[in-house]
Design brief:
The protein is an all-beta fold. It has eight domains: 6-84, Immunoglobulins (Immunoglobulin-like); 92-171, Immunoglobulin-like, CATH 2.60.40.10; 178-257, Sandwich (Immunoglobulin-like), CATH 2.60.40.10; 264-343, Immunoglobulins (Immunoglobulin-like), CATH 2.60.40.10; 352-428, Immunoglobulins (Immunoglobulin-like), CATH 2.60.40.10; 435-513, Immunoglobulins (Immunoglobulin-like, Sandwich), CATH 2.60.40; 522-599, Immunoglobulin-like (Sandwich); 605-689, Sandwich (Immunoglobulin-like). The chain is 1% helix and 57% strand.
């Protein structure tokens, strides 16, 4: 083994390690460093001096020894040295309290007598700040807003020995933006807010507030657009800068006044003939108003005022279109409602009365000067209908149907009184609408319609309308008959009355449905001995179908939405009657009958095979009916063979069968004429013969 090494020095620069230096030992290939703390120790194998033992505890006294190693073994431990590891680094908690200060705090470090904390801009600008303290927190002030700082801290022990250091990067929050400007777009009711960028800011938030309402716009640039502003509102705009350290103080609020809203509560009246008075309600932030009045001949005038009313001259018989705008420094209010006003016409002329519906008359006349009001009077029987209006048209509604009326238009003027020289005009209203009382079916395609007659000398027309077409019948009485209605069809039945005065409104429609059509084609196909498939064509108007096969031995029935159905429990060799019911969505049904159906003859039972020789077999069976003849068929790859028994026997022999093959044997009934049923292989069971 090599000689014992001698330690020159041992020291700790990190809280978890001790570095050892010793003189090299001739012949040694490795060295074993040991750090012992009571009963625990840590060993590290190194090649040469110096060597470091890691994984140690901070502020702990260790006994350090070194042993030299070669192929011959290990030396004895060197004389020990006592070395204490340095203090652990304090773990910092750092935050920016404001745009020019940073708060640093940490937990107490065992064995620490004090702490040293330094701070410097990460870009190297400015000077380094350093503070020593025995507390566990301190604050750096008078820092640059929005700047990134590097903070380094370590603890020292009672001997002034520094421990591990801890480094942390922290940015101060940004300063508030400056030079905030607001540009208002009156057409789009939005504002563009801009400012000078501030150092260290990553994003900006614009707050636009008015009372309890706040709008916000976030951006990473130096401008932001705030949409959806309200008219007649004063907003206060401020900008706040943000970075990962927090937010700046908001800027001083900038006032923004939007355009006024469109004036409301606009009233127009002709306070005296030839003069119009336009008035409206006062608008918040409205400094002055402009009223535009345009007549229907294209002439336009306007009035500019700081009050809430304007006067205009007018002529009789004209229509005026009136718009009011409010203005302030921000611009013009949006377009509000456009009002029209018709001045009083002059004396009526060119009088016309036209029947527009069975109970409504439209009365028109040319505009006339000097008239303040028109009265239209319609007298018919004991009833009088009046209409008063300043317009040159009047609609007399709710007149009695089938009644002649005398209609007169009177004009009124404050200066001349009433003009009663207008001649009346006679107008008869259209007949009254009939009311269908009953619809009865008199046959498969015949329907009788009855109604309440309520007109004199009127002709009634009944119409059945459906996808299949139109059917009509006409009568001067109280009923008529619709003929040849198709099956499976839905109709809407209504009636009208006609007279020389016109045509009434249609009556309320009554729904009518004819029974569904029977399917034209019906096919029965035997699937197995006891299952039969029935299919049929679509019956118009049918939603579901009920098919029935019935015999003295029993009944098979199926109810389906499809046009086919599988019926089970069919008895072989039985004659069935076939019927079908087509049922509509509302429950109307048609019963349909078709040609009868006979199921296939019954298969035999107890089929057994006996070998007669190498080239022959005998086939036995039990007949299901003594009147049925049977035939045995044998099918193989080398040929097909068959046999038919003599009368009254239940067996037959098949000979001269090629050897060395596997055969399928089927015994099936045959008809009186000889040939088998076409589907017998799927009905009767098979036997395998080898």
């Amino acid at each position: 083994a090599p000689d014992i090494p001698v330690i020159d020095q041992a020291y700790s620069k990190l809280s978890n390690s001790i570095t050892v230096e010793w003189r090299a030992v001739p012949g040694a290939t490795n060295y074993m460093l040991t750090a012992q703390d009571g009963d625990s120790f840590v060993e590290t194998l190194v090649k040469n001096s110096p060597g470091t033992v890691t994984g140690l505890k901070p502020a702990t006294l260790y006994r350090i020894t070194v042993r030299s190693i070669n192929s011959g073994g290990k030396s004895q431990p060197s004389p020990f040295r006592k070395v204490k590891t340095v203090l652990a680094a304090p773990i910092l908690s750092v935050r920016s309290l404001s745009c020019d200060s940073i708060s640093v705090s940490w937990k107490a470090v065992p064995m620490a007598a004090g702490f040293s904390v330094s701070l410097m801009r990460s870009d190297g600008l400015g000077r380094m700040l350093k503070q020593n303290t025995t507390n566990t927190s301190l604050i750096f002030t008078n820092l640059d807003p929005g700047a990134l700082y590097t903070i380094k801290a370590y603890a020292w022990n009672a001997n002034g020995m520094p421990g591990d250091d801890f480094t942390y990067n922290q940015r101060t929050s940004p300063n508030a933006p400056v030079d905030v400007k607001v540009a208002f777009n009156s057409d789009a009711l939005r504002a563009v807010v801009s400012w000078m960028p501030t150092e260290g800011a990553l994003t900006y938030s614009v707050t636009v507030s008015s009372g309890f309402m706040k709008l916000r716009c976030n951006t990473s640039s130096a401008s932001c657009t705030v949409p959806s502003l309200q008219c007649s509102s004063e907003y206060y705009v401020s900008v706040t800068a943000y970075n990962d350290a927090g937010a700046s103080e908001p800027t001083d609020a900038v006032s923004l006044k939007t355009i006024p809203c469109a004036p409301v509560n606009i009233s127009i009246e002709e306070d005296e003939p030839g003069h119009l008075l336009v008035s409206w309600s006062s608008i918040t932030l409205g400094h002055y108003y402009v009223v535009f009045v345009k007549s229907d001949d294209g002439l336009e005038v306007h009035c500019n005022t700081s009050y809430t009313q304007c006067h205009f001259q007018s002529d009789c018989g004209f229509i005026y279109f009136i718009t009011v705008f409010a203005y302030n420094k921000a611009g013009q209010s949006p377009l509000g409602d456009v009002f029209n006003f018709t001045t009083a016409p002059c004396c009526p002329s060119d009088f016309r009365a036209v029947l527009t519906s069975s109970d409504t008359v439209r009365v028109t006349w040319a505009p006339v000067r000097g008239a303040d009001l028109y009265e239209t009077r319609a007298a018919g029987g004991s009833a009088v209908v009046l209409c008063r209006d300043t317009a040159t048209a009047c609609t007399l509604s709710a007149l009695h149907c089938g009644t002649p009326y005398n209609i007169t238009v009177y004009s009124f003027s404050e200066a001349r009184g009433s003009n009663t020289s207008c001649a009346p005009q006679s107008v008869a209203t259209a007949p009254c609408s009939p009311e269908i009382k009953n619809i009865s079916k008199e046959g498969l395609s015949i329907v009788s319609v009855q109604w309440q007659p309520n007109n004199e000398e009127a002709t009634y027309v009944v119409t059945a309308r459906g996808e299949a077409g139109l059917w009509h019948c006409t009568s001067t009485r109280n009923s008529c008959t619709l003929m040849d209605l198709p099956c499976g069809s839905a109709f809407s039945v209504s009636a009208i009355a006609r007279s020389p005065a016109g045509q009434s409104f249609p009556s309320y429609s009554i729904p009518l449905e004819t029974a569904p059509c029977c399917p034209n084609d019906l096919t029965l196909t035997q699937v197995t001995q006891s299952v039969t498939n029935i299919s049929w064509s679509v019956g118009r108007g049918a939603q579901t179908y009920v098919t029935t096969l019935e015999s003295p031995k029993g009944q098979a029935k199926c109810h389906t939405l499809q046009t086919y159905c599988l019926l089970g429990c069919i008895t072989c060799g039985t004659n069935y009657t076939v019927s079908l019911r087509a049922i509509s969505e509302t429950g109307l049904a048609s019963s349909c009958t078709y040609q009868g159906y006979s199921s296939s003859a019954c298969c035999p039972s107890g089929v057994k095979l006996y070998r007669l020789s190498n080239s022959g077999i005998r086939v036995f069976w039990q007949a299901s009916d003594e009147t049925i003849n049977y035939k045995a068929d044998l099918h193989g790859s080398k040929g097909n063979f068959s046999c038919t028994p003599s009368s009254g026997l239940s067996h037959c022999d098949i000979t001269k069968i090629p050897c060395g093959d596997v055969y399928t044997v089927v015994v099936a009934p045959v008809t009186n004429k000889g040939p088998k049923l076409t589907l017998f292989p799927s009905f009767c069971p098979k036997k395998i013969y080898s």
